Amino acid sequence: MTEEETCRSFVMPALRQSGWSPEQIRPQFRINDGRLTPTPRRHVHGDPLVADYVLEYVPDMPIGVVEAKRWRVDANDGVEQARRYAAKLGLSFAYATNGRQIVEIDYSSDPPAIREIDRFPSPEELWARYLAGLQADSGIGRELLAAPYDHHLRNPDNTAKRPRYYQRVAVARTLAAIARGQKRILLVLATGTGKTMVALQTVAKLQRSEWVPGRKPRVLYLSDRSLLVDDPKDKYFLPVFGPDDVHKISGVPVRGRKIYFALYQSLEKGDEEELFRRYEPDYFDLVIVDECHRGSSRDNSQWRRVLEHFSPATQIGLTATPISRKEADTFDYFGEPVYTYSLAEGIEDGFLAPYRVRRVRLNVDMEGYQTQPGQRDKYDNEIPEGVYGPKDFERVMVILERTEAAAQYVIDFLRSTAEDGRHGKTIVFCENNDHAARMRTALFNAASAEVQARHDYVVRITDADGPHGRAQLDEFRKDDSDEPVIAVTSKLLNTGIDLPAVRNIVLFRRIASMPEFKQTIGRGTRLCAEIGKGSFDIIDFVEATRLFNDPGFDGPPLRVVRDTADEQGHVLDSVPETPEGDAVDLEAIAESDVDDLPADGATGDMERPGSALVDPDEVDLIRSRAKRYTVDGVHVYKWGERRYQLDTDGRTMRLVTIQQWVHDRVLELDLAPDGLRSKWAVAKSRRTLIDLLRASDIEAEELPSEFGSPDVDPVDLLLNVAWGLPLVSREERLHRFLHEHRDFLEAFQPQARQVLEELLLKFAEHGSPQLKPATLGVRPFTDMGPVPELAKRFGGAQPMHEAIDELSRRLLEAS
């Protein structure tokens, strides 16, 4: 029997005999989407994990998984699959069966056991064992875990927005902890994996239970930025619970609602008494702390006082990046996480976007900048003599050309990766607000053509930009908006903001903190099907991505590329790089920038991130060291660039040269030399090949300059790198063509021959990509007449196309 026949004849009857109803058996249960992998056709999902059957006590409450094998196959052959599915789904019970045998994998027993059993356990039996394993088998535990999920939220296609498998695990672990009476609960979920959905569903289940006898529980949702409060309130909780039950605290204490949202800063206000003290300590039953790794992690922070005031409440901390330092420890307050879902898991499951990394180093960062005795800066300030390096740039030493070279690189990159003329949305992280302003100016000037078409092509969005910056951010967040394209910031956008349309993260800010690094990279990890975003790029000017090599980071990049640029910032060379052997610089940057310090008592709509982490006694010291010197006229150019490529294990990285990178990608096209040459000869198929190579980060038309062979045609470089065929210069090709195929040219009428001869000159100057009808739309062809008139010289458009392709074929064969 086939597996399907085995399931129909034996597995399903065995489950029904144990009391499982059809509604409790979910066949072909899709666990994830399958890892996204860049291919010549952009991105494809790998095979998803699909369990044969998932057993649910109530809807969306899996408690067991079944892997079925065909009748003649040993049931033990399905044990490893069943174990894998159970681990993903956070389950303690998995079963492998062939219709004759049933093997149970039980992680709830001590020690865990694999045993053969006579029958499947009944729903009540398995439910009781499931609850006992979570230590939530009390009456309230049963009620909380069995409470239904809420499905009011809708996807863009108007289907119900259902929680993903790991979100259900997070909710179940959280409710089990609440049922056990645990007062402080920590959830760690990677950026972009839906912490707000977990919070919503947890609250929905609590609201539908008798957790608080006689009334619905009162919930306080806390954070330190308006966006982190307003987005959950407006996009998640209001659609589910309505305006009568949802309220944002501001100015006065309001009562009679079920779900409250508040900023720490707002709760600390008050003329006579702080606002949070005007609520009784036991007023709230549940406090949800979003981004709990920040201010509230410090023992002596002002924000910690808010949590301690409401200590009778159950408190849930949400974060992607918990911290554990002497002065701030998320675990010390909330305890060990009840559930963790990492960036690596999100990428592997296909729920998060994988990424590529380009490490770009500028010469002044590599060599340092040496000042001379008595040298004065642009504003006539005398500069202390010495060598200034990356740690000093933008904080102490400002080199205007350094920012301009980086800006030119970014604009060139956006132009080279544009799709249908649209540049990918990009965030540029700078050292401080002043640096962000200069970077905005440099990008504005480098993108003159783009700015002319879209006046808000590049904008600065920092805490200093106030309501106007907030309006620009709202527009930048939209996936269907063409501007702004580039948002330049310092710290404001590095955490908690949902930006699914962002395709590029530019690091021009030194980052030594692993939590900050993870949060910053997380701005690009969200997928955006509406614009076809399946991956994103990181451009690193400051070696921040060395943190990828630290054991504390998860989720490796697809590859890293190191670029070399000229003094104008244009790319000259691209070399893939491996992280192997790179030392990780985890030195903390003690100097907090003066632009990032809060004014006394300052709050507002765009709160300064991390302001509570600055000790007031340190402010004067920091300000006293904030003297900057600005110089110009410095020769700045790109020193180099490297690429990382994922190894075959799908996790580690290895260094490959640009030649090796191109070699591997060309061989993936599965074309023999003759096949590559023949496809390259025809304009239409050549364009397809160029697009396929571009999808693998190979710009075919730039290969001559990248390989240092400007006189060689791209196709000859491809043939040489992939199969070792000898290089032939364009001049030599043209000479051989004229010697071997003169009769081909002379077969055409003089006017048609004139067109072909001019195309040969274009080939000699710029290469074979010029051999296409579109080239006839530029000079000198426009001097001969419009393209339709030129086509008449050949007897029509089709004969003209055929003549150009035949010219190209003969030219490429003349070797």
From TrEMBL:
CC terms in the record's Gene Ontology section: cytosol
Family annotation (SMART domains): DEXDc
Helicase ATP-binding domain mapped to chain residues: 176-340
A single MF term (Gene Ontology): ATP binding
GO biological process: DNA modification
InterPro entries documented for this protein: EcoEI_R_C_dom, Helicase/UvrB_N, Helicase_ATP-bd, Helicase_C-like, Helicase_Restrict-Modif_Enz, P-loop_NTPase
Pfam families: EcoEI_R_C, Helicase_C, ResIII
Residues of the Helicase C-terminal domain: 409-583
Gene3D superfamilies, per database record: 3.90.1570.30, P-loop containing nucleotide triphosphate hydrolases
NCBIfam families named in the record: restrict_EcoAI
Protein's recorded name: DEAD/DEAH box helicase
